[in-house]
Design a protein that fits this description.
Blueprint: E1 11-15, H1 21-27, H2 30-33, E2 36-40, H3 43-52, E3 57-64, E4 68-69, H4 71-80, E5 84-92, E6 96-99, E7 110-113, H5 115-119, H6 122-128, E8 133-136, H7 140-148, E9 155-159, H8 161-167, E10 170-173, E11 183-190, E12 201-208, H9 216-225, E13 231-238, E14 246-253, H10 259-271, E15 274-282, H11 292-310
Parallel strand pairs: 1-2, 1-3, 7-8, 7-9
Antiparallel strand pairs: 3-4, 3-11, 5-11, 6-9, 6-10, 12-14, 12-15, 13-14
Length: 314
């Protein structure tokens, strides 16, 4: 008789190598930390690995409190993949200047990091390393890993403390970001499954305009306002189809299982060229509006209309 292998648990893909903020976000969630992990070279590759079935889920950064949206994630979800967001994860971001053991700040000629991280440390760089040349890396952790594998005594990296621990680097300067408080939001995605409602949810979608005419955005927003649905994010992105054509990426409170949210999406689907549903999932925000009254009023309105229609004579 052949030996039976243990059933393989789910695999989550995320931006590698070890020591990235994304890995930190993965380990902040006990169920994700317990999964099989696969570190992948880029955000786009993570999403493609989920869609192809190479991994079961993927966690990718979508927004930073200081720098704003991660456009690579937004565009891939909007245009290139058909995945559903399952949850959002928010973590604090801490940036530090790291170097090989024994290296001093005065010897630094180059600084490597992920461009978004470098942009958040402009004041420190201008004051302490004004002549240092910046070199872009695929991630903060990738910069740290490559430096640790070299003998370079003139290069430093901007990375989280986790990278210093993983790769044996020393902290030349701690907490070097321009803003003391900074957070990054990540989204967990998978194919074909919509997360169950929790009562504290968010829905994301992409709305393409039927035509670029005056009032088209107002018409879209009115569908939410008329139902007292709170929008938590509204962004425009070029459709990549033609110069000057834009679509809207919208996050709103509520779940597609809520009738008011479903009704808004139905009307939007009828009045716009296309609505791409990106998912309904638990919200990580502490601020949330109660939609129970909306549901009650909607049921009352439906009942009232049905009663009136029942009175129509033959």
């Amino acid at each position: 008789m052949g030996q039976h292998s243990e059933p393989r648990g789910p695999t989550i893909g995320y931006l590698g190598p070890a020591g990235t903020f994304t890995e930190q976000a993965v380990y902040s969630q006990p169920d994700l930390a317990a999964m099989n992990h696969r570190r992948i070279n880029s955000i786009i590759d993570v999403l493609q690995a989920v869609e192809s079935g190479e991994v079961d889920m993927g966690l990718v950064a979508i927004e930073n409190m200081i720098e704003g949206s991660v456009t690579a994630t937004l565009d891939a979800l909007a245009f290139d993949t058909d995945l559903y967001i399952q949850r959002e994860v928010i973590i604090d971001v801490n940036l530090n200047l790291l170097a090989r053991p024994g290296v001093t700040l005065e010897s630094i000629e180059r600084v490597r990091s992920y461009p978004v991280a470098h942009a958040q440390c402009r004041s420190f760089m201008a004051e302490r390393l004004p002549d240092a040349v910046f070199e872009a890396a695929n991630s903060t952790a990738d910069a740290a890993r490559n430096l640790a594998g070299s003998t370079d005594a003139t290069t430093a990296v901007i990375a989280p403390l986790r990278s210093a621990e993983v790769y044996g680097l020393e902290v030349l300067a701690a907490d070097i970001a321009d803003h003391a408080e900074n957070q990054t939001r990540f989204v967990l995605v998978r194919e074909g499954v919509i997360a169950a409602p929790t009562g504290h949810d968010k829905t994301s979608m992409v709305i393409y305009q039927r035509s670029d005419v005056p009032g088209s955005l107002i018409g879209i927003l009115q569908e939410f306002a008329a139902r007292a649905i709170n929008l938590t994010s509204l962004q425009s992105r070029p459709t990549k189809a033609s110069l000057g054509q834009y679509c809207f990426l919208i996050d709103c409170e509520g779940h597609i299982a809520d009738e008011v949210v479903a009704d808004a999406l139905r009307n939007l689907s009828m009045k716009t060229t296309r609505v791409k549903f990106l998912g309904s999932y638990p919200s990580a925000s502490a601020d949330h509006h109660d939609h129970l009254m909306n549901e009650v009023e909607l049921r009352k309105a439906v009942s009232w209309i049905e009663d009136l229609r029942g009175r129509i004579g033959s």
